[in-house]
Amino acid sequence: MRAWVEKERFDGDIVDCLTVILPTRGCSWDSCYMCSYSSDSPRDATQEKILAELFRAVERKSGQIIKIFTSGSFFDSREIEKETRQKIFKKIQEKGFRKIIVESRPEFITEETVKEISLLDVEVEVGIGLETSNDVYRAELINKGFTFQDFVEASKMLREVARVKAYLLLKPPLLTEKESIEDILKSLNDVKRFADIVSLNLMTIHSKTPVESLYLRGLYRPPWLWSAVEILKKSDTEIICDPVAGGKKRGPHNCFRCDRDVVREIREFSLTQKKNVFERECECIERWRLSLNAEQLTGSFIFS
Ligand code: SF4
Ligand SMILES: [Zn+2]
Fold first, then answer.
1. Residue range 21-33: mean pLDDT, rounded
2. pLDDT tens-digit series, residues 171-185
3. Ligand 1 in contact with 130 (CB < 6 A)?
4. Of all atoms in ligand 1, which is nearest to the CA of residue 73?
5. Does the global pTM surpass 0.90?
6. Domains in the chain: how many in total?
7. I want to staple 219 with a disulfide (CB 3.0 to 4.6 A). Which of 214, 250, 261, 278 is the partner?
């Protein structure tokens, strides 16, 4: 069973959040250049197995919030049928959770989805992987398959009944470190009106992806943790960041000496939103400064 309890912000407090990964067939789009979730998804996913997994998790663990990931879209009925979703909602309400967090691509947000959510007694937050507000970067460097306008329309519908979380992706391939920071700062400004909260995702190298091919040829370096710190310090909207594989070679990293501390500070910031948590210094910050303008090709070799 893939379920665990972690801390999450809720109405200004820090509370327990049960995170569950449901074994669905995976994302129907399955074409983003950095993602291998679908190939990790079980081939034998059935609605019964999905429900059994959810029920097992909520019987064993609890929290005020439940976060449900599917490695795809919660509202995609090819992954989770409507009837299954309703059983999940019923169970969650019975168990007394106060908030449910799910993820979805914008094409699955319809009038019917809004109606489904409106019938619930718990607060709902829907995360959408916008990645960037730049349509060219999203299409050409990420292959996301939807536009900023698609996100805006889904967000407008959702916000009648739910909170919207926009995921932004730091450092799509082919951008310099500096360009990727600027892209996020601009995106933060652009999504402000359409999202209640932003989650900053730092690129990690998944196996068997186009981004991995670049990485293996020395043409891509995952973002520096210093870049994330810079963005979090400059942001004036609520923003969270959980550096997955932080401090590992295939994940966002600095010099490997300061990484553990910087990851801890980023997580602490995500819970508290206090900018004074960033205290760690390290000599590698000079190498990060030098690498800001390096092209991917030379930057990957010299500044890793
Ligand atoms: S939409 Fe999400 S789950 Fe689907 S391929 Fe893209 S990143 Fe992966
Ligand atoms: Zn360092």
1. 95
2. 999 999 999 999 999
3. no
4. 3
5. yes
6. 1
7. 214
